[in-house]
Amino acid sequence: MLQRHLRSVVLELLETFRVVHLGGARQSGKTTLIRDQLPAAGGSSVTLDDEGLLLRARDDAAGFIASLDRPARIDEFQRAGEGLVLAVKAAADVDRRRGQFLLTGSAGSLSAGRSVETLAGRVGRAVLWPLSQGEQRGDVESFLDRLTEPGAWPPPGIWKQPVRDEVIAAIVRGGYPEIVTENMTQRARSRWFEAYAEETIDREAVRSLVERTPGPELRRFLRVLAARSGRELVMTEVARDVGISRITAARYLALLEALYIVHLQPAWATNATTRSKRAPKVHLVDSGLAASLVGLGERDLGALDRDREFGFLLESFVVSELCKQATWNERSFDVLHFRDRNGPEVDIVVEQRLTGAIAGVEVKASMTPRAEHARHLALLRDRLGDAFTVGVVLHLGSTVVPLGDRLWALPVPALWARW
């Protein structure tokens, strides 16, 4: 069984909060984590995928919650709506013991609106992303820490062969546990991803969240986003390509975010006000799903290793791996991007919230790193001074190359390698 690094985070939350919300996409491994990797604690465990239990929870939320032995684990809780959240709040206010409720769901209903206000001060949150590359290999990654620890540099030159094929295979495989553990052929994998996208939208989005959303239109919207994964989000262009209004496009985007299918990478700026006004980049959470939706397999990517299309997909893959590492790290990190109004941009800016330490990462679909690949990292370094810890160019070659003061080129597998 592949061990999930988020396990320790969930255990800490259960020891701290009365209610814990574990979010994440369908098939990301939430049920397996709860059932097989958390210690047995008695109590009760139910899923609202069971239509009979769902009807009970909707008709009499307070009675349903009262019937559950504690600690209670409720899967797909969001399907019962606001009434169930209110019933959990009432029960947690009467009995203030920690770890009473573990709510899991594949729609982020606790991320917005009245639900947050309802459980404020009572709920601890965590999000389980698909498997990271380290989890797939049985290792705990430390790349985020090294980015903001100057003493970790220079890295050793531990890569002895080109890594392009390894990285391409990792991209098209993605991180959904069933894909990773079943060793599927490319044809079977494509069918799995196609069914996953259709079932998630039809089952979760249309039936559970927005009854009037047309499934085919939303699936078309998802394909357009997959083709733009790794790019700045221009909503008017996305809406035009799908043939819908900008308002509808914004609603669909929020829905796919709530389903943990799409992730927005905010822009970095020196203050929050400026940051909020700049366009985010859009990424599909899973690179395998993104590649499948645009019809790219290993052979296709191998032929496009220097193409812009592959470069954006590679960047999305790297962003997702860093976001996964941030979910279990003891320190708090933001994974952002930077674009200067005069043109220079940096693919990824990692900021440690407590210290303000900042690192930059450029992602290149090249096997030969060059000094020019780090020129925007150098601009960011010069602008930030001592707050800038290191700039890294991640590439598809096998060499570790110094590119200047606090600037290095590393193979992409440095993200998950031990060093």
Question: What is the strand and helix layout of this fold?
Answer:
Layout: H1 7-14, E1 19-23, H2 30-37, E2 44-47, H3 51-59, H4 61-66, E3 72-75, H5 82-94, E4 101-105, H6 114-118, E5 123-127, H7 133-137, H8 143-147, H9 164-173, H10 177-182, H11 186-209, H12 215-227, E6 231-232, H13 235-242, H14 246-258, E7 262-265, H15 272-277, E8 281-284, H16 287-293, H17 298-303, H18 308-328, E9 333-339, E10 345-352, E11 358-363, H19 375-384, E12 388-395, E13 401-404, E14 407-411
Please provide a written account of the structure:
The protein is α/β, with parallel strands linked by helices. The protein folds into two domains: 121 residues, P-loop containing nucleotide triphosphate hydrolases (Rossmann fold), CATH 3.40.50.300; 283 residues, no CATH class. Helix content is 44%, strand content 17%. The chain is built from 19 helices and 14 strands. It has a six-stranded mixed β-sheet, with helices on both faces. A five-stranded parallel β-sheet has the order 2-3-4-1-5, covered by helices on one side. A three-stranded antiparallel β-sheet has the order 6-8-7. α13 crosses α14. The radius of gyration is 22 Å and the shape is globular. It starts with 6 loop residues before the first helix and ends in an 8-residue tail after the last strand. 46% of the residues are buried.
